[in-house]
Amino acid sequence: MNRGLLSGKFIILFLAFVAVIGVGRLLFYAKPPSSESQNKDQTQNQSAQSASNENTQQKTETPSVKSDQSASSETVSSCAQALKTKTQTQKTNYERGSIIVGFTSEITYDQAKDVLAIYGLVVQDEVHAKEYYGSQRLITAAVTPGEEFTKVCLVKRDARIRYAGLNTLFSLHQ
């Protein structure tokens, strides 16, 4: 009888543990609600990524640029304005003078530096970036303060880049 009670308590504890894990995953991995502009950006990014994947399969040595690369500077400025508005609306705190750029798996560290140079960017912390680039494929790039939004929108259009964003600062609320 004691054993039956123990197994019942174990089952209850196990179910409570599973429930806590499930709620935690929902809280920490749930995507925030997106607006129409974010949905459009996601759709464009998905179509550009599929085009990029096709180009990557066809060309192994020559890096490809997403099909919308030839779009006018109005597209970059509207993207920058949308990003700035989103950042202000969500009260996102970011480090002025730097952005984070993630590269596709086939881009080496030296190639990544060359790509950044095309856009007038340099690696912010050369030692740290070189040490961790192989595992994360991320580089924090130095930007002229005030140009973060424009550079993010310009850089993320390149097929060699899988991610470009502001260097977001996180803080715990008390």
Low-confidence stretches: 30-71
Provide the structure class: alpha+beta
Reported for the largest beta sheet, the result is: 4 strands, antiparallel
- Gyration radius, to the nearest Å? 22 Å
Count of folded domains: 2
Residues in helix, %: 55-70%
Please give a structural write-up.
By secondary structure, the chain is of the alpha+beta class. The protein has two domains: 1-30; 36-168, no CATH class. The protein has six helices and four strands; from the N terminus they run H-H-H-E-H-E-H-E-H-E. It has helices at residues 2-29, 36-58, 73-89, 109-118, 126-136, 148-155, and strands at 94-103, 122-123, 138-142, 161-168. A four-stranded antiparallel β-sheet has the order 2-3-1-4. Mean pLDDT is 74; it is low at 30-71.
Key attributes of the depicted protein:
56% helix, 2 domains, 6 helices, 14% strand, alpha+beta, extended, 174 residues, four-stranded antiparallel beta sheet
Question: In summary, what is this structure?
Answer:
The protein is α+β, with helices and mostly antiparallel strands.
How would you summarize the topology of this molecule?
Elements: H1 2-29, H2 36-58, H3 73-89, E1 94-103, H4 109-118, E2 122-123, H5 126-136, E3 138-142, H6 148-155, E4 161-168
Antiparallel strand pairs: 1-3, 1-4, 2-3
